[in-house]
Amino acid sequence: MFHVLVADSISSEGLTPLLEAENVKVYRKDREEDNYNPEDIDALLVRSATQVDDALLSSLSNLQVVARAGVGVDNIDITAATKRGVVVINAPDGNTISTAEHTFAMISSLVRHIPQANMNVKGAQWSRKKFIGTELFGKTLGIVGFGRIGGEIAKRAKAFQMKVVVYDPFLTDTRAEKLSVISLPLDEVMKQADIITVHTPLTKETKGLFNKENIPQLKKGVYLVNCARGGIIDEEALLHHLNTGHVAGAALDVFEVEPPTNHDLVQHEHVIVTPHLGASTKEAQYNVAFQVSKDVLAYLNGQSVNTSINLPTIPKEIYKKIQPFYQLGKTLGSILSQSAKTPIEEITATYAGVITEWETSILTKSIIAGFLRNRVDTTVNEVNAATIAKERGISYGEKHQTDSYGYSNIIQVEAQGKDVNLVVRATFIEGFGARIVHMNGFDIDFAPSGHLLYVQHTDRPGVIGQLGLIFGKHETNIATMHVGRMLQGGKAIMMLSFDQPLEKVLIDEILLIPDISSAIILEL
Ligand SMILES: NC(=O)c1ccc[n+]([C@@H]2O[C@H](COP(=O)([O-])OP(=O)(O)OC[C@H]3O[C@@H](n4cnc5c(N)ncnc54)[C@H](O)[C@@H]3O)[C@@H](O)[C@H]2O)c1
Ligand SMILES: O=C(O)CC[C@@H](O)C(=O)O
């Protein structure tokens, strides 16, 4: 049973996939009767109210996934989550239309002074002259950040017969052409626009993108709109230039601190505000809740997710094909980790055959995760494998090759250290399962699962007999046995499997056999 905690106010209808799943129990933080143990929580669902910081992540010690029912993940410490192996999911497009519509409502309200006029009439006044507005028709709208929301705003602006100029360093000419907008450098947008609306995430680059120094470069009488993230337009700078009259007015849905503490700005007669309402429609809240619920359920059930922030996204049809190799990758990493008795500095994964047609980086991460899992005391998975490997000074890489040794697919993993060089090669056979087909120079054939013993010995008569005697004495039944050698009478290996874990004392006895050089227990 998976335990899911819904920490913020999230649409109940949108949670249906989780509420109806038989293997999920949903707790709502705001429902006193919902008692839960933080250490049992597998998945956490939030909007923007809950700060998912390292302290919260550490208190939810079993957490596998955090889902943000919305776009911005700035309330989630992604680095901390990644380090802890927690997958972060969001719902990138469920609230696009609502936010674009809200922005457009803000723009219209701003240039026609609707909120101020509304208050005027409700205050028993009738000041018609005071509220002379500006038409949108023929004006230039500057959109800074031309992603999903920016694009929807452009479409609406076109319907109002506005000229649209945009700035986005990652915008392709094809998309600009498709949406009939003019892509310009930021300083040009700043010079030309009568109204500027920002739709970027809040990053190091976009924090204070509009500031005290550059706001005077905007057209005198410009209108500024921020329905993205507080701080993209510096609040102090905005207030200053509203007071100088350079900025005619501003519409703000988001603030540097929420609820806002800059009262002079909020109360300014040319500023209109809403309490972060961009995504607050029934439709958007249903969409984002439904999207993340489906993804959380999929992730908990070991299926692929559509929109993870810190996990490579694999299309569903590819995921189905790749899944057995993904498990095999973990197993190969684990075999190497258990066989290497000295430090490993470099791991190389080589892929051949059909798998080279797919994205193999996730398989490489699963190998690294399998390798590290036995060695570190934190949870390691494909999310944090790269970070932890780097911390431990282990570099890794991957190659594709054409020679697949006669198999339809091959994964080979090589682990190198100062005194060690280990190689394991495996294949996955549809309907039959995974097989290890090569180990450290020897061709062999065994299923990599269960309780195994990997023995290196000299190919001489009697070695297997002596081993058999030791197992017989300890009443330990050998389930399967595979032998590989290069030359008659030369070095050889054995892979034995057992029905239960092996006792360490048995290994000490085996190592007394003169022709056996090593015996390593592998638990897979
Ligand atoms: N007010 C709300 O309730 C609400 C609702 C949804 C989204 N948002 C916020 O709106 C913003 C945009 O959302 P979206 O869904 O359109 O995201 P998106 O990722 O589709 O678009 C963001 C765009 O910003 C561009 N960008 C990044 N850095 C830039 C820079 N330095 N200068 C110019 N452009 C830059 C990116 O290239 C991208 O095209 C996000 O911050 C999101 O959190 C707010
Ligand atoms: O949860 C909300 O209402 C705000 C969402 C919005 O800021 C987002 O980034 O998706």
Q: Any overview of this molecule?
A:
The chain has helices spanning 16-19, 54-59, 78-83, 96-112, 114-122, 148-159, 173-178, 186-192, 235-244, 263-267, 282-300, 316-339, 361-373, 385-391, 463-473, 504-510; strands at 2-6, 24-28, 41-46, 65-68, 87-90, 140-144, 163-167, 182-183, 195-198, 222-226, 247-252, 271-273, 346-353, 395-401, 409-417, 420-429, 433-439, 442-446, 451-458, 478-485, 491-498, 516-523. With 524 residues, the protein is an alpha/beta fold. Helix 4 (96-112) packs across helix 6 (148-159), helix 12 runs parallel beside helix 13 and helix 13 (361-373) crosses helix 14. The chain folds into four domains: 1-92 and 281-309, NAD(P)-binding Rossmann-like Domain (Rossmann fold, 3-Layer(aba) Sandwich), CATH 3.40.50.720; 96-273, Rossmann fold; 312-401 and 409-447, 60s Ribosomal Protein L30, Chain: A (2-Layer Sandwich); 450-524, Alpha-Beta Plaits (2-Layer Sandwich), CATH 3.30.70. The longest helix is centred in the middle third of the chain and has 24 residues, at 316-339. The strands form four sheets. A seven-stranded parallel beta sheet has the order 8-7-6-9-10-11-12, sandwiched between helices. A six-stranded mixed beta sheet has the order 14-13-15-16-17-18, with helices on one face. The protein has a five-stranded parallel beta sheet with strand order 2-1-3-4-5. The protein is built from 16 helices and 22 strands. Helix 3 (78-83) links the parallel strand 4 (65-68) and strand 5 (87-90). Helices cover 31% and strands 25% of the residues. The mean pLDDT is 94. The structure holds nicotinamide-adenine-dinucleotide and (2R)-2-hydroxypentanedioic acid (2HG). (2R)-2-hydroxypentanedioic acid binds next to loops.
